[in-house]
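Bug #77: duplicate submission created two jobs. Keeping one. Sequence:
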Amino acid sequence: MNIRITIGAAALALGLGAPGAWGAKPAAVPAKPDAHAAALAASQKCMDCHAEAEPEDKSAAGKPVKVDVQAFAKTMHGNGKAACVDCHDAEGFRKYPHKEVKPPQCASCHEKAVKAYAETIHGQARAHGNGVAATCANCHGTHDIKPTSDDDSMVSRGRIEATCGACHGDTKLAKDGKVPGGNVVAKYHDSIHGRLLHGDTKAKDRVPVCTDCHGTHDMRPKKDPESAVNRANIPETCGTCHGKVKKIWAGGQHGKMRAANVLTAPGCTDCHGTHTIADPKTPEWQVGVIKECGGCHTEYIKTYRDTYHGQVTDLGYTRVATCASCHGSHEILPKDNPFSKVSSQRILSTCQQCHPKANANFVKFQPHANKHRKESGLVLYYTALFMQVLLAGVFAFFGLHTVLWLYRSLAERKAQRGRAAGEGEKH
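Kept job's structure:
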């Protein structure tokens, strides 16, 4: 056996050294047979003690010290893949009882991942004193770390929602730690993505989970230009799954504006939301998204609400035209573009989707005519003006009538009381 490893293992058993002093760390390179045996020997003294601990035994930091040896052997670090002191390499671990124990140092083997973590929103929050921000152990576990491909891993697709939800699903923790968004996991769980993830269809293996949108060791705040959820990067992030839709959107007016760096132009999340993304095929969503269109096109939403289409959809019905019915959804183009659904070349076919008998005269109807502007037509303008004057006149006339009637009623009651008092004095 290699003499250097034998001496190192013996020194550790006596509490005199650490594997870092006698060779390369097993987790960083494939373990050789002699290194494997050395790691097992190096950890044996630790396991002899921690395996016998009671479940209620806690460290100075308040964490359980008991280790399930058999369960740990099946993990990424177990069965000699790494010695205990590869992770717990602080000075306080070299003597028993342990003193001034520090958290495990993942960087001793995972230097690249830890360096990337330091730049993430979690790492930055920790650096600025936010003690509730997630660490490596919060996401990956401690003595139960398993590969992502393992269904029991905390970072497997099936469990990532619960892992993130430990912080982002805790309303109190989110408030105390000033975690943005509040309980976003509950919103995600009820969204179309969450329902598909927990459904029985094949989509559950493709539907995005938290890390697909936000990243893993490159998770950055949305204000960071390099963040996957930065406003400028949202179409690219969503396009990872919705490639065909992204291509259509990019060819539309909104996509062209974004390409010209007009970030106020709507992207995916402006219409669909973020963690609350619903099924766009449902009537509720189709009616609700009209408000999103109106958030930018304020003048058009007012004139739309004056029409039959707008008033019916305002009541919650979708059997009449919505914004997308006429203008399209992802393929929206200006009216002067021949490919636009509302261009002079295509407007008739667009109307005929709902009105099969529509003709050239039918499409002369102005769906966004403004009754307060003469440009929309003098007949409409003066008719609306007449109706306003008529309405004001009716209210004014009957208002005055009501006031005079009230005055007369009060005067009559006063007179009646006077007559009743006079008759009483005679008797």
